[in-house]
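Protocol step 4 of 6: record predicted structures for both targets in the notebook before any analysis. Target 1:
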Amino acid sequence: MMSRTRYLSPILLVAAALALAAAGSRIIKISYEDGRRSGNLRNGPWVYESNRPDGIVGTVGELKILASRAVLEAPEGKSMQAAEGERTATFEGGVTVTRGRLTARGPRLVYSEATGLGVLAGPAEMHQEPAKEGEDPVDVRAGEMSFDVDTDISTSSGHVVLTSGNQKGWADRVYYEEERGLAVFTMEEGAVKLVRERKDGELVIHAPEVRSLTRTRKLIATGGVKLVDGAITTSGDALFYDDASGEAIVIGSPARSVNEEEGFKTSGGTLLHNVNKHRVQVYRKPFTLPTEEFKKVDE
C-alpha cells in the first residue's frame, strides 16, 4: 500500500510543474554588447553600464528592457546563482520596454523575478501598433505602469489617459490585455470619463467602471452610468455601446433620458440611444448585458 505522505495527486503534480515553469520563465537575462559589467561575481550586485541609451538589454519572456544602466541584486545572504528566481533588476537612465506590438518608455524600471512584474516609473508612456489594417493604435500615459511576464497584461495607474482612435478615457487605473485589446477603466472615487469624438460633437460616458474592447470598438459601463450626447442625457444602471452601429443600450430601474433643448423625457427598463441620429426610444426586445465578452482572463 502506498504511503499517503509520499503520494501526490495528479492535480498537485501539475500545479507544481506549472509553478516551476512560471518561476523559470521569470529569470531575467541581461546582455551588454556595447557596455561593461562590474561587481562581485559570486554575490553581486552586478552593475551593467553603457554609453548608449539602449546598450544594456534585459530579456525575460516576451519582454525586452533597454537602458543605459542596470543593477541585478540577490537577497541578502544568497549568491547570485542560488538566488535565481528571487533577484531584483533595476534599469535606469531612460528605459524602453518592448513586447510584441507594444513599446513603453519611462525613467526607471524595477523587475522582480519573484513576482514576474516589471514596474515602470512615470511619467510613463505606452504605444501599441494596431494588429491589422483598419484597427486603431492604443496610447497610454500614466504615473506608473506594470508589465506581467506570465501574461500579456499591463496595468497603468495614477492619472491614466488612454487614447484609441476617436476614444479617450481618464481613470485612476487601467488594466489592459495587450493582444485582445481589453481595457478596464476604474476609479477609486468618482467616475471614469470616456469621450468619443464625432463630427457633430462629443459623446461622453461617465461610470465607476468602463470595459472597452479597443479592437472591435465596443464597450460596457457599469455601476451607474450617464451618457451625454449634446443636449441629450441618458442615465441608468449600465450600458452597452457598439461604435459600428452608433447605438447604446441602457438598462435601469428605470433608465431615463432627457432632451434639454426639446424638453422631451423618456423612461423605461431598457432604452435604445442612437448617437448618430440623436434619438432615444424604449427598447422592446429582451436584453442582457454581454458581460462574458468583456471578462478579464482571471474572471
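Target 2:
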Amino acid sequence: MANEGAGSARMDAAEVAGAMPLVQTVGAVLWPSFFAACVATMVFFGFVDPTELGTITFPQVQVSREWGYTLGFFMFWACTFSSSLFTWILLRPRAEIDRPQRR
C-alpha cells in the first residue's frame, strides 16, 4: 500500500518531465480550433448571406460580403479557440498544476 503512493508520485513527476513543449501545446489548441472554425463558417454561410445578416443586425453599417465572411470566420475561430483552450486547461496533469512556482 505504501508503495502505491510512491508509484503515483513517480508517475506524476514523469508526466511533468514529459510535458509537451509550448509550441506543440499552442499548435494543439490553434489547429483544431482553426479547422472547426473553417467548417462552421462554411456551414453557416451556406445558409446565411453575410450582407443580409449585416442589414438585419447593424442596418447603419454597410458590410460587404467579404468583410462579413471575415468577421464571421474570426468570430467562429474565437469561439472554437476558447473551447480548445478550456479543454487543454482541464486535461493538464495534476502534477503540472500542483508543482511549486519558481520566482
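Step 5 preliminary note on target 2. The chain has a mean pLDDT of 82. The longest helix spans residues 65-91.
Proceed to step 6 after PI sign-off.
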